[in-house]
Structure formats: structure tokens, C-alpha cells
Specification:
By secondary structure, the chain is an alpha+beta fold. The protein has two domains: 13-337, Bira Bifunctional Protein, Domain 2 (BirA Bifunctional Protein, domain 2, 2-Layer Sandwich); 349-445, Rossmann fold (3-Layer(aba) Sandwich). Helix content is 33%, strand content 27%. It contains 14 helices and 23 strands. The longest helix is centred in the middle third of the chain and has 21 residues, at 167-187. It is globular. The relative contact order is 0.14. The structure holds '5'-O-(N-(L-prolyl)-sulfamoyl)adenosine. '5'-O-(N-(L-prolyl)-sulfamoyl)adenosine (P5A) binds next to β8, β13, β16 and α10. Keywords: Ligase. Its EC number is 6.1.1.15. It comes from Lutimaribacter degradans. This is Proline--tRNA ligase.
């Protein structure tokens, strides 16, 4: 992409309404624009990051064997009356009527709708196990929408639902989600810690939230510092293996880690004092096992091996896709702007032309741009006639992890400069060497087509 052709409405001033750093940088970098309280338009740069996050989520869900699908944002109230949640949800639910005076709602989550699909089509245990998921917009009329996309009213969620014959199988689905989530967050450059949590309006006893530690997080968390030393790494996990998935759950949940809702001071005090941590975190996902709560209320049964009808065991599993954009920025920035992890960066590398209009510099930039693009990389080429300082400030603000600087002086010696946004370190090299280096850096982070 050429910056002269792009829509990047960068703000010089810090917007007064933004209280936390991610919200400030998202507004300043022209990623989002508020449409009304807690509701945002995603401008091209922000939308690109959102799509990258979605793609990683899809890849990891497919790897775990889950089936992608899509359900509507508007639902009939009738299903929610069946489950008993129509009244429970209270003012968080946005309700409306259609022209026939029928009660409708904007989906805050989709347990009812998926259970209705299931009961309409599945009647035998032979069709189990089954896990389907979607990435779809949700609406919760939060009392206090704040911090930009972190607590929106409209937000993008990955929500997955598993259907199993037995509790044991459903717990395997739970563990499988835990493993796939660890890998998902890690690919986004995040450490998200599973913590025992409260199930709230979704229901059930078994639930973990995934928290990214950050001072600006909304949740207070209590944990054993040993948990932060665990790395998921590039493990070759067989998702169909109950033992392997269970072993990962054991490893990542055996130390004390709880949100304030489930915190137990006496248990916490058994952790050696030097390892006890009280901090704040951003909830980027939550997994639930709730057994037969919805299947019993809504008559979702299958015929078991003995011919008897039994309600299916279920769970649901969510990732805060739009919230993740903010969470990643909270975890990765400096005073000048965002520092995107390689896995989610909107463009892989910035090209800064120090002297737009200089024939040699222009030609070198064009060659770099074409060669990077041919390798499947996405460069953002600043071909504007802004002065060099302004170009660097914009690149730093929007957070591309790598920058290639091209100027007449370097070109005389046959070199360009490759700069790492995170460390600030620069190295001179030939344009060809810079292209190869960038291609090499991103090789493990190229999101394959779906
Ligand atoms: C699990 C999937 C559920 O709704 N039903 C379907 C279950 N879980 S949850 O924890 O309530 O939400 C899942 C994730 O969505 C994000 N989230 C939000 N993001 C931005 N703004 C909000 N107002 C908001 N509310 C929830 C969180 O990351 C949460 O973990």
C-alpha cells in the first residue's frame, strides 16, 4: 500500500476522551472512530488488524477440529424465553420489535440459537462429538462502555459451542479449547493466563477466564508468579487426545490463579509469599462447561447407544476478538506509539523515502515495494512529501515492527537502513539483503488463506 493512496487519518493531539493508552493510540493512529457510545467504525488500518486477529483465531479453531459457521445478529425472543434467559439478561440486552410486533433482540451470545439448530438436526449419539463456532458481532448494552474497544457495546466475539454425549467428552472439548486458546494468544504475541473464574449469566461450574496482565485491566487478579514462567511454545499437540489436552490443562491451571470473583484468601496464603502476586488483567477469553443447562431446558437430546434419549452435555467458549486489538496495544507499546507483534501487524514493513522526488530514491523505493509484495509481504510505502521527521513519527505511532529507510546518501553506497521498532536498532545493508531479512522474519507469521 502506498500511503498517498491510503486512508490514515492520524491525529497529532491526544484525544481528551481516551483514558487508557490503547484507546489513545487507536484514535491517534486512525484505526477506529466512535460512532456512538461503545460503538465504533473500524477504519482501514484498524480493520486490517482485526482481520489478522480473526484469521489467527480461524486457523487455530480449524486446527482443533472445530467447524466454522455463521448465525444472525438478530434473534427472536422466543428461544430466550425457552431457556429462561430472556428476563435474566435485564438491561444488558438490546430489545426491539419488528413490524409484526414480534419481540427481537441483538444477540449478546448464542447458546440458545445454536441449541435450536442442534435439536432440529441431530438425534443420534453417532453424530457427536460436534463443535461449531462463529466470529460474529455481539451487542451488550453495558452500563459503562469505556476504554474504546475494550468494553464496547457492540463488539466482535468468537463464540464456539460443543455438543457431547458424556460429561467426560464435554470436558475434553473444554480442555481442547484451553489448549487452542493458549496457542491462539501466543501467536498474537500475548501471554494470556487461564484463571478460575465465575460463570455469570452463561452458567455452569467449570469456567476459566484468560487474562493478559496489564495495569489498565478491569479485573483484579491473584496468582502464583510461577504461572508466568510457563510457555506454551510450539507444541505438537494431538487435539483428539484426551490425555494430551488434559495434561496441558493440568500444567497451566495447577498453580493458584483466580479472578477476584473466585479468589480464596486462605488458599492464596498457601502460596509462598515471595510468589504471591496481586495485579490487574484484561479478560480476552472465557471457556465454560455447563453440562445440560440449555439442552434440558430446550429439549436437545440424542439417542444414546442403549437407545434411550439423553440431553447432550454442552459448553461454550469465547474470545474477545475486537477487545484483543486493545489488549495487544496495552501489552506492546512505548511513548511514541504502538509496537505490533509480527503475527498481527497491519503491514509487515514500512518503507520511508527520505527524499520523495529524487529519481534514484523513488526508483529504489519502487523496486523494494515490488520485490516485497512479490514475496507475499505487505509493505506500507510512505511516498508522500512530508518531511523525514514526520514520516518517522507516523511509522512509530502506527507501530509497524520493521522499517526500511531509503535516502540518496545511503543509495550512493548501495545501502538502505533496516530498523527494528521494538529495539530501535538499525542496520545498513543492500536492498536485496533487507528484503530477504524481512521475508525471513515473517516466514513463521504468514497467515495462510482459509
Ligand atoms: C462464551 C462464548 C460468553 O459470552 N458465550 C459464547 C460465552 N462468554 S463471555 O465471557 O461473556 O464473552 C467472551 C469474551 O468476549 C469479550 N467481551 C467483550 N469485549 C468487548 N466489549 C465487551 N463489552 C465485551 N464483553 C465480553 C471478552 O473478551 C470475553 O472473554
Amino acid at each position: 500500500m502506498r500511503l498517498s493512496r491510503y486512508f490514515l487519518p492520524v491525529l497529532k493531539e491526544t484525544p481528551a476522551e481516551a483514558q487508557i493508552v490503547s484507546h489513545r493510540f487507536m484514535l491517534r493512529a486512525g484505526m477506529i472512530k466512535q460512532a456512538s457510545a461503545g460503538i465504533y467504525s473500524w477504519l482501514p488500518l484498524g480493520f486490517k488488524v482485526l482481520r489478522k486477529i480473526e484469521n489467527i483465531v480461524h486457523e487455530e479453531q480449524l486446527r482443533a477440529g472445530h467447524l466454522p459457521m455463521l448465525m444472525p445478529t438478530l434473534q427472536s425472543a422466543d428461544l430466550w424465553r425457552e431457556s429462561g434467559r430472556y428476563d435474566d439478561y435485564g438491561q444488558e440486552m438490546l430489545r426491539m420489535k419488528d413490524r409484526h410486533d414480534r419481540d427481537m433482540l441483538f444477540t449478546p451470545t448464542a447458546e440458545e440459537l445454536i441449541t435450536d439448530i442442534f435439536r432440529g438436526h441431530v438425534s443420534s449419539y453417532r453424530d457427536l462429538p460436534l463443535t461449531m463456532y462463529q466470529i460474529q458481532w455481539k451487542f451488550r448494552d453495558e452500563i459503562r462502555p469505556r476504554f474504546g474497544v475494550m468494553r464496547g457495546r457492540e463488539f466482535l466475539m468468537k463464540d464456539g459451542y460443543n455438543f457431547d454425549l458424556t460429561k467426560e467428552d464435554a470436558l475434553h472439548a473444554y480442555n481442547r479449547h484451553l489448549v487452542s486458546y493458549l496457542r491462539t494468544y501466543e501467536r498474537m504475541g500475548l501471554q494470556a493466563i487461564p484463571m478460575r473464574a465465575d460463570s455469570g449469566p452463561i452458567g455452569g461450574d467449570d469456567t476459566h477466564e484468560f487474562l493478559v496482565l496489564a495495569e489498565t485491566g478491569e479485573s483484579e487478579v491473584f496468582y502464583d508468579s510461577e504461572i508466568t514462567e510457563l510457555k506454551f511454545g510450539d507444541r505438537d499437540i494431538d487435539y483428539t487426545s484426551k490425555e494430551q489436552c488434559h495434561a496441558v490443562l493440568e500444567e497451566f491451571t495447577s498453580r493458584y490463579a483466580r479472578t477476584d470473583e473466585t479468589h480464596d484468601e486462605a488458599l492464596f496464603n498457601q502460596v509462598p509469599e515471595a510468589r504471591r502476586r496481586v495485579a490487574r488483567g484484561i479478560e480476552v477469553g472465557q471457556i465454560f462447561y455447563f453440562g445440560t443447562k440449555y439442552s434440558e431446558a430446550m429439549g436437545a437430546t440424542v439417542q444414546g447407544p442403549d437407545g434411550k434419549a439423553v440431553p447432550v452435555h454442552m459448553g461454550s467458549h469465547g474470545i474477545g476478538v475486537s477487545r484483543l486489538v486493545g489488549a495487544i496495544i496495552e501489552a506492546s507499546h512505548d511513548e511514541r506509539g504502538i509496537i505490533w507483534p509480527e503475527g498481527v501487524t497491519p503491514f509487515h514493513v514500512g518503507i520511508v523515502n527520505l527524499k520523495t522526488g529524487d529519481a534514484e530514491a523513488d526508483a529504489a523505493c519502487e523496486t523494494l515495494y515490488a520485490a516485497l509484495t512479490a514475496k507475499g509481504l505487505e509493505p506500507l510505502y510512505d511516498d508522500t512529501d512530508e518531511r523525514a521527521g514526520g514520516k518517522f513519527a507516523t511509522m512509530d505511532l502506527i507501530g509497524l515492527p520493521w522499517r526500511i529507510t531509503v535516502g540518496p546518501r545511503g543509495l550512493k553506497n548501495g545501502v538502505v537502513e533496516l530498523t527494528c521498532r521494538r529495539t530501535g536498532e538499525s542496520e545498513e545493508m543492500s536492498p536485496e539483503a533487507a528484503i530477504d531479512r524481512v521475508a525471513q522474519i515473517f516466514a513463521p507469521h504468514m497467515v495462510r488463506g482459509l
